[in-house]
Design brief:
By secondary structure, the protein is α+β, with helices and mostly antiparallel strands. It has 4 helices and 14 strands.
Amino acid sequence: MNIRSLFLTAIASLATVNAGISKINHDQVQPFAQLEPTTDSEKSAVKYKPQLHISDGCHPYPAVQANGSVSGGLKWAGPSDGDCKGPALGSQVYARSDWYNEKWAIMYAWYFPKGSQFQMNIDTGHRHYWSFAIVWTGSPNPENSTVLGVSMSSSGYGKKAPPKSKYVVDGTTVKFDSYASFWTGKMAIQLTKKEGETQDLITWEQLTDEARTVLSGAAFEAESTFSKIVVPLKDDVFSSILKEAYPF
């Protein structure tokens, strides 16, 4: 089988996987309401929920709603923040937590309808983008933990252990910034002193089965062969990121 045949087979397989997924306009996805936390894990996720400042590109939008319908995203065209300066229905931040090397890792993930990317000085932005930040503490118990370190989605993962106090509000709320990296041409997350916004939080366990199943699938695969868009919350991806982004 030649390369062209392999490529067409891959596209056909992706189309088959996506065939049963209901996609709706990016500004019509209803976010999950932030629930009252009941477990230590949920309470810690709320306690350490970060701020996100936007320097470049889209504001975060909900990726999926309760019935499993997902955002169709935005085709890359026009300004980097065109048609995505903030959802009227409300935004969303997703969280997933687990132990890794005796540290408690809380991943916060944001979905963006489109993302900027440069290849060989050509703007090859694409539909869909995910960014994330990890707050590392010593325990899931919110009464007995502090921020020990942070990791951010960027080239090679940005890591700080611990982050400087100028980046943290009241010892719990880390301030992150979404920006277009000059070096990689991709969207990335960095620490910032600037004030940002928070979004309603929903944890991986609090999602409906329909929403979690869709996020675990291929609903957000990039259309371009230059881009690999991965949902960081997925089982195997989440575990791999914790290992690679460990900052200690």
